[in-house]
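Let's practice the habit of predicting before peeking. Look at the sequence and jot down your guess about where helices and strands might fall. Then scroll down.
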Amino acid sequence: MTLPRLRILLFNTAHRWVGEAASTDLLARTMAARGHNVAMVIPESGSTVGEHLEKHPERIQNIELIRVPWRLMQGRGSGSRAQFLAVRRLLKSWQPDIIHAARSKEHWCAALLRPITAPRARIIRTRHVVLPMRERITSKWLFTKGTDAALAV
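Done guessing? Here is the structure:
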């Protein structure tokens, strides 16, 4: 029995090549090697992730790189309208079956925009921290209603 090819969209918006960027890269390569249609969302500028991937073309064989405006600063108010609209256009046109997020900002963006995907995309979140999830109502919503599966590494 052959399994269906999935359309998998992975966010890799780290500003440096660190553990989460490397693990997202490994996940993308593994899924592409298994025959899935894989795209990786990276910042259009200000990130060494895109530079690293382009210096190693063997890493992105059969993986589509999609650059979006992505503000790399941390904390509240660090989002941008251009970023949100770019991801909205991307989700509407690319129509992924699965969205993978490794960072909070990309997770929120995907969760809020998921209703425009048809059929509804599944969201998988990988947490790269050892701290427990915050007890805020917003965090609870994100991990109960805005997520289909969560992994802690």
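How did you do? The first strand starts at residue 7 and ends at 11.
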